[in-house]
Design a protein that fits this description.
21% strand, 33% helix, alpha/beta
Length: 181
């Protein structure tokens, strides 16, 4: 078992999803914010032990979207997993539903999740709710997520806050000296 306690879980940064219209920031801004989190939490200069990086992608269970090899389903290069990272393929909104994500996190001793990606009201929120129910300490990074409207984004973050999810910005996550890695 590893001493790694934090996982950065980045949801659905696939080509077709990031190209959609998002608010209050576009897909490129979400990618950039997620990449900044990834570099700081999992990169060469990250505190030890480094956080685990988990890339989550959505594929249709029936293969109607062309499957994992379809160009539109490719993760953005800045979100693609490396050899020491996890790739989770989901068929529903929630990254835990029908996947081995929980087993993988538990096996690695992860207790804290930092969530980013698209969309706030869908994949991110569904994953955050399941993670809270499973006993993880969960942070959603507000400026590394977006939704179909600014109102939906803000409403979702407020609802997650009432469940005990910490809502933070990229800067506050990166400057927090108390977050266990």
């Amino acid at each position: 078992m590893t001493t790694r306690r934090t996982a950065l879980v980045v949801v659905d940064l696939q080509q077709w999803i990031t190209a959609m219209p998002w608010e209050p920031r576009d897909g490129a801004a979400v990618i950039a914010a997620s990449a900044r989190l990834r570099a700081a939490l999992t990169g060469a200069d990250a505190p030890q032990p480094r956080a685990l990086y988990v890339a989550v992608r959505h594929l249709r269970a029936d293969g109607g979207d062309g499957g994992s090899h379809a160009p539109a389903n490719a993760l953005h290069p800045q979100a693609a997993p490396g050899p020491d990272d996890l790739l989770v393929t989901k068929n529903e909104l929630d990254a835990f539903e029908g996947t081995a994500l929980r087993e993988s996190l538990d096996r690695l001793g992860v207790t804290d999740l930092v969530l980013a990606g698209l969309s706030t009201a869908h994949g991110v929120a569904a994953t955050a709710r399941t993670a809270v129910a499973a006993g993880y300490r969960v942070t959603v990074v507000s400026d590394a997520t977006a939704s179909t409207s600014h109102t939906e984004h803000d409403r979702t973050l407020a609802a997650l806050d009432t469940l005990g999810v910490r809502i933070r910005t990229v800067e506050s996550v990166l400057t927090d000296k108390t977050t266990e890695r």
